[in-house]
Task: structure prediction
Amino acid sequence: MTSRKVLVIDDAETMRRAVVDALTPAGFTVITARDGFHGVAALKETHDLCLVIIDLNMPGMSGFGVLDWMRKDRSPHLPPAVFMTTEVSESALAQAKSAGAVGWLIKPCRADQLVSVVNRVLAKRGERNGS
Amino acid sequence: MKSVLSDNDLAAQAKLLELLLSATQDGIVDWDLLSGATTYNARWSHLLGFDGAEHAEYCASADAWRDLMHHEDQPHALQLIDDHLKQGWPLFTTVRMRHRYGGYRHIMVRGAAHRDEADRPVRLVLIFSDIDERIRSEERQRALVSALPDTLFRVRGDGVLLSVKRGIEREGSPFAALREGSTLSNCITDTRLLARLEAAFAEPREVSQDAQTLGVTSLIAEGTPLHHEVRIVRSSEDELVCIVRDVTERRGLEEQLLQSQKLGAIGQLAAGVAHEINTPMQFIGDNLHFARGAITDLLTLVELLRSAVQEAATGPARDAKLAELAQTELDLDFEYTREALPSTIERSLTGVERVTAIVRAMKSFAHPHGDRMTLTDLRALIESTVMVATNEWKYVADVELNLDASLPPVPCIGGELNQVVLNLIVNASHAIADVVGTSGEKGKISISAASEEAHAVIRVRDSGTGIPEHARAKVFEPFFTTKEVGRGTGQGLAMAYNCVVKRHRGSIDFETELGVGTTFVIRLPLITEVGKSGGVSA
Result:
């Protein structure tokens, strides 16, 4: 059975809670980290994640910093990454794609949108792993 | 949404939608992905310069939005649409679209797909916003910025460099390693400069307040100083814009100017000094002429005395010789010679001493201790300056010196400070000359130096005209002068201010009363940060 555990890295507490509130009823277990450094620590420790949702702009280590670390670490247990930001620029999108992110959420988003994006990403992931 | 809507509700919603579509400034394309049908709102073709009739014609084609896109931008835009439809990536890009009247306009394209129960996209709405003006003004701004010779960078509160625009930089510039995305502390190796920047960044500033200028000197390894001026403006709550200008050349020119001002002053003084030397030389010459005559006379008498002495011992013509001797003494006025000769020699020696003193003062004025901060005997500095400037004051004033013997050596740049004192003496003489005119009367210049608490204080007081009210606020401004052409250039007090306040971190003020005179007061700190200011200084 595939894991249903999601990690959320965001410096805003309200955002972390919103994701927990949206994904928990849809059958996900959500763990949270309050910045990039804690996020990386959680990624090292937790080996059964199906997805990580990362805020782009965080003090200290930014979302790209986390993605960079993931790309260099290359541990097989690392989950696919989705960005979540309030604003979006073409260059940031291009950077995220080339850094290996699999999706992007624009804040604010409704709970059902969040769930559908997560499901879509996981479905694609499943297809790829299956083939 | 599963709620069931009545026909009335649907009609109302359709009406609202229609209103929104016609009111919006954006062009909207609604693309049914299943049937391929595409509808455009009127605004869409309007954006590109087509009127109503043409709109119907052009927008008959489902592919109009693709066809009018610049061929270079099309593949990227289509790729982004594909990413959005297949993977849900945000759809957001800027493309150039052909305009009805030629050329292209920059259009921002955003889009969102509607998906069915199985999460398949069935419909795509594309929104076209005209951002041509913004893009072009951004391009103009970028062109403007890139034409500047300065280095510009934006830095966030945590030290991350958000953008860097390189200027023209010399080899060894501490700003040469700035890189976008890196942090300030990784790019600037000079710790003193870094600390100074960080301290400046930490100061509270209002958004878009006037730029604050931070003077920076940085030394590079080979010892060639590079000077940079850093301007800082807050561009948002968490962001500063810094403009770094290389002012090495300007500093060099400033130093040359200072040097040439100094040489100019010496040149002006030279005529006065020549006169000062000429007077004693003239009477030394007169005295020597007199002494030559007197000595010839004395030798004549000595000859006579010798033969008289010989005659007295042996010869018969003793009385005749003695009479001749007495007569010659009278003829040559021996008594006068005996009295005058020693004092003539004395006076000549005095004259020689005076010339020597003037030459010494001139030398010490020109090259006192170089251009560095050194502990300097202010009394000697003032004395030699007064001496060198003698010709400036002696016809209009007497100078009274009151220099405290207990004044300790003062850290200062002697070569500049004597200029300041000279300028004040010259100004005082001019002010007094305006009062006494050619009456032959003399005013008074009093110069005192003493230590007061942590400062050495020099006062230069004159009994001149005083500074008129309208000029008081401007006396320290460069090129401000009330003197007629040829008498002043408006540089003297500006130079004094620069030297005392900026270079010595002291102060210069004046008290003045019309018809009574003016006193300039210079305060120099007795303790300075000499030696501390190696790498970075204002």
Remarks:
- DSSP finds five helices and five strands in chain A.
- The longest strand of chain A covers residues 49-55.
- The helical segments of chain A are 13-23, 36-45, 63-73, 90-99, 111-130.
